[in-house]
Design goal:
The protein is α/β, with parallel strands linked by helices. It is built from 15 helices and 14 strands. The chain has 2 domains: about 230 residues, Protein tyrosine phosphatase superfamily (Protein-Tyrosine Phosphatase, Chain A); about 160 residues, Aminopeptidase. The chain is globular and about 70 Å long.
Length: about 425
């Protein structure tokens, strides 16, 4: 599943469902949503119908009351209750900050202020979430800072690991261009002076969690001592409400060849995986490195395939028929597999291996005896994965030019197809 729910007016509406816990559970899809301001919704629009169709019965608005008055709240409807809990006590104007301020330390410090100033409101918000037996949404203005902080506390109490919490925060990066465009539209086309406006780099949440744990020892200790709540009971209530066993059976993958209309989906998948990597300290892909034009060109010069499970995207890959940048001039005896991608947290087990098998079947169908691929020389874990799938290391390319302006070293792997 794609955790981003598509709206015209909202850019950062996300389902927290699918994140897994260490004890074999996952967050139930369709129960817990985080978003940018629902005040942008309007009755009678497709957005409004889409929002109501989610069955949300509780909305928590984390903005200041003056923000609500100036920019509007979610429209009234009998299907849900609305709660305005401003967890931020010291407002600040991000757009007017100096351009050289590093978002990581600056925002992490603001989050600590919120954690210690807004204890009454954070406690009330957590109580609402824990007592909600139906779908719930919480939001601030951009769905980034205050929303991200509350999401981090909830995910931690649910037993989600820190890397995933950091990743979830950084997914706002996928909405940054639209959030920035909205701000410019409200300000006669002017640009914020702070280059970090709308950004959610992983360093922000990493630093905040480090600071919170350094002062209190753990998120649970913060809940206990700063919020005066029973952290164990709260965690138990949240888990009972929002967790379900991770599925043990999955429907088979179905494959279809991508078309140009799929290019935006492929960009979104790659950017999501980039943020997954960065949250785990893997310096390989960066968001926005590949645009729609890249995937469209791969479709015209080779093949791009999508894999779905029960109609939901599970993965994708590119198949090239030449790859001189890595392998140099070669006879037409191989297919070259690139950008093997699976949806983080929601793809069925072994999806990556099934993508490889499918790619190999396409290479066989083209009467080519070899499947080839490469991986960063600095990523031994990925090399081991490919070796376990039957690929053998056959060389190194110390200066591959991937079209990004900085050559890098890759390990070359090959598999003889039967």
């Amino acid at each position: 599943m794609d955790r981003h729910v598509r709206f015209d007016a909202l850019h950062n509406f996300r389902d927290l469902g699918g994140y897994r816990t260490a004890d074999g559970h996952r967050i139930r899809p369709g129960r817990l949503y985080r978003t940018d301001s629902l005040g942008k919704l309007a009755p009678g629009t497709p957005d409004w119908s889409r929002f109501l169709s989610l069955g949300i019965t509780t909305v928590i608005d984390l903005r200041h009351d003056w923000e609500v008055e100036a920019n509007g709240r979610v429209p009234h409807d009998t299907s849900f209750t609305y709660h305005n809990l401003s967890i931020e006590q010291r407002p600040y104007n991000q757009a007017a900050l100096a351009p050289d301020i590093d978002p990581g330390p600056y925002l992490a410090e603001r989050y600590m202020e919120v954690a210690e100033d807004g204890t009454k409101e954070i406690r009330a918000a957590l109580e609402l979430v824990a007592s909600s037996s139906e779908p719930l949404a919480f939001h601030c203005a951009s769905g980034k800072d205050r929303t991200g902080e509350l999401a981090a506390l909830i995910l931690s109490l649910l037993g989600v690991d820190e890397a995933t919490i950091i990743e979830d925060f950084s997914l706002t990066e996928l909405a940054t261009p639209d959030l920035l465009a909205d701000w410019k539209a409200r300000n006669n086309g002017a640009s914020p002076t702070w280059l970090g406006f709308g950004r959610a780099p992983e360093s922000v949440m990493r630093l905040f969690l480090h600071s919170l744990k350094k002062k209190y020892g753990s998120v649970e200790a913060y809940i206990t001592h700063a919020l005066a709540m029973d952290a164990e009971l709260l965690s138990s209530q949240l888990r009972e409400t929002f967790l379900e066993p991770t599925p043990t059976t999955w429907s088979p993958l179905t494959f279809r060849k991508a078309t140009p209309d799929d290019a935006s989906t492929l960009v979104h998948l790659r950017d999501s995986l980039s943020l997954w990597m960065l949250a785990r300290g893997i310096d390989q892909w960066k968001p926005s490195e590949k645009n729609e034009a890249h995937f469209k060109s791969r479709m015209s010069e080779g093949e791009v395939w999508l894999a779905h499970t029960d109609g939901a995207l599970s993965g994708a890959y590119e198949l090239w028929w030449t790859d001189e940048a890595a392998w140099g001039p070669r006879p037409h005896d191989a297919g070259y597999i690139h950008r093997l991608m699976t949806t983080p947290h929601t793809a069925p087990p072994h999806t990556g291996r099934e993508l490889l098998h499918h790619a190999e079947s396409r290479i066989r169908a083209a009467n080519r005896p070899y499947a080839r691929l490469d991986c960063l020389s600095t990523n031994p874990r990925l090399r081991t994965y490919y070796e376990s799938a039957g690929y053998a290391v056959v060389g190194e390319q110390p200066a591959k030019d991937g079209g990004l302006g900085s050559p890098y070293a890759v390990t070359l792997l090959e598999k003889r197809l039967s």
